[in-house]
What we know:
By secondary structure, the chain is α+β, with helices and mostly antiparallel strands. The chain is 50% helix and 13% strand. The protein is built from 13 helices and 7 strands. It has a 5-stranded mixed sheet with strand order 3-7-4-6-5, with helices on both faces. Strand 5 (216-221) and strand 6 (226-233) form a beta hairpin. The longest helix is centred in the first third of the chain and has 19 residues, at 38-56. The mean pLDDT is 94.
Amino acid sequence: PNAFTSFNQTVYYFSCTDLFEENFRMLLDYVQKPWLTDENVEKEKGIIGQEIRMYEDNADWRVFFNLLDCLYVNHPVKLEIAGTIESISKITKELLYDCYNTFYTPSNMVVVVVGDFEPEKVFSIVDDMIQFKDKGKVEKKYPDEPKEINREYNEQKLAVSMPLFNMGVKDNVQVSGLELLKRRIGLGIALYYTMGRSSDLYNRLYEERLINDSFRFEVSLNSSYGYLAWGGQSPDPKKTAGIISEELKKISTNGIGQEAFKRIKKSQEGMFIRSLNSIDSIAREIMDSYFNGANYFDVSKAYEQVDIEFTNRVMKEVFENQTALSVINPL
């Protein structure tokens, strides 16, 4: 088994071509029997500390988290996933057991299996293996987050050959379930229209050599937070950000035309359908949807319900919010 931690999930997983039942039982046993000692906790703290120091020199990592710190005043999404050298120094065996006993409860967990298997056999193994006692629903309480951003600009110097920038905007509307799926789709269409590779903005910036093939954008929406972000390498991040800001205002005012909307919506839905070829992608998306009160199999329904009026409305709601800019400059 392997594992990873994101902003709002800790995931234990495996993939296999054979011996599924044995691997599945091992995973369920592994998650239910933590073995923590003072010695192995101290050893792991040293390993995590090395990883934290490594990420401190990673320009892509730093420009992204510096942007989140610009966007968010209080929400913990702005915090480093691995913590800091100072915060991990306070971790003890007892604290980890407290966290485990609080969060590792059936009401706060989900098992996802994707592939060629017999569902009844999976249910039988889960019933046989799961020994957790449900201690009630875990309530996650987040601090109030103002609509305003924390700061407009952050700059840091690292060993890079060309300046790197991330720019973004908060989505202050919190939704879950089907409405969350629809909002992700609508804002994804809006971003693709604004700065996808066939857009006027992308081609202008590319022809003026203000961006290159590293330019990317993303929509990240969850039930407690949401943001849109974009960026890459640029010889002049501030000039690039200024041009993008002007385009956001213009598109927010004019909206997306019907022909462009239909074309991009079909393209985005096609990419979703192609993603169904990946069992890893399906597993991750089912889990993400579950914790956001949504059903992954409702994505097609969400595409049916997203029209041009909805897309232009959510685009205007978000594009008119204040943007933030994070820049990494060469030493």
